[in-house]
C-alpha cells in the first residue's frame, strides 16, 4: 500500500485523515508543529493498525521547514503515494486593521506551502507514473470571507490547474471543499460559531471519507454533503454582487467581522 504524507496531522481533519488511512493499511508520515501530539499519535496508529507511522515536525509557515518536508516527498526510499495538504489556520481579525504579520503567516501556510509541497510531490509521482495529491480547500473559496477565502480560492483553482497538467501521467489532483466541520479548529482560533445551526455542520469522519473516495475515483473537486454541493452551485451561479452582499449580511448578523473558516489547523 502507498505511503501517505499528511500535513496538519495532529488535530482536526488531519488527525482523521491519519486514522482512516492507517486503518486502510497505509503507512503514514505525520507532519505538524506539535511533536508531543505527533509522537503519541504515531504510537497509537502503529499499535492499532499495524502500520508504520513516521513523525516529521515542521512549521509550514517557515520556508526551511517546508523544504525539509519537500525533501521527504522527493525521497525514493518509502516513496509517498498520497500527499494530503491539510494544514491551515483561521484569522479572527479584519484585514485593514489586523496584524499583517499574521496575514503573512497564513499566506505562507495555506498558499506557499501547498504550492511547494505539491511541486515536490508531483515531480516525484510523475516520474514513478502514479500518485495522488489532495489539497484541502473550502466552500469559503466561493465566498468573500476575508483573506481565508482568497487563500482557499487559490488552492481550489491551483488544484484544478494541476489536475489538467497531470492528465495522462497516472497522477491525480483533488481539491476537497468542506463546509463547517466539527473539529477544534474554531475554538483554537477563538472564533465564535454559535450563530450557526447544527444542520450546517459536518463530521470529520464523513468529510475525510468523502475526500478519500473521490481521490480513489480521480475526481478533481470533492464537496462533501448535498447541502454544501447545493450551496457551492448557488455561489458559482449567483452574481458576485449577491455573494458580496451575503458577506456583509453575515458580518452584520454576527456583530463582528471574522473570516469564515471551515477546515482544520496544524
Automatic annotation (TrEMBL):
The keyword Oxidoreductase applies. The keyword Oxidoreductase applies. The lineage of its organism: Bacteria, Bacillati, Actinomycetota, Actinomycetes, Micrococcales. Keywords: Oxidoreductase. InterPro entries: NAD(P)-bd_dom_sf, SDR_fam. This is SDR family NAD(P)-dependent oxidoreductase. It holds the Pfam family adh_short. It comes from Cellulomonas humilata. It comes from the Bacteria. One of its GO terms (molecular function) is oxidoreductase activity. Belongs to the short-chain dehydrogenases/reductases (SDR) family.
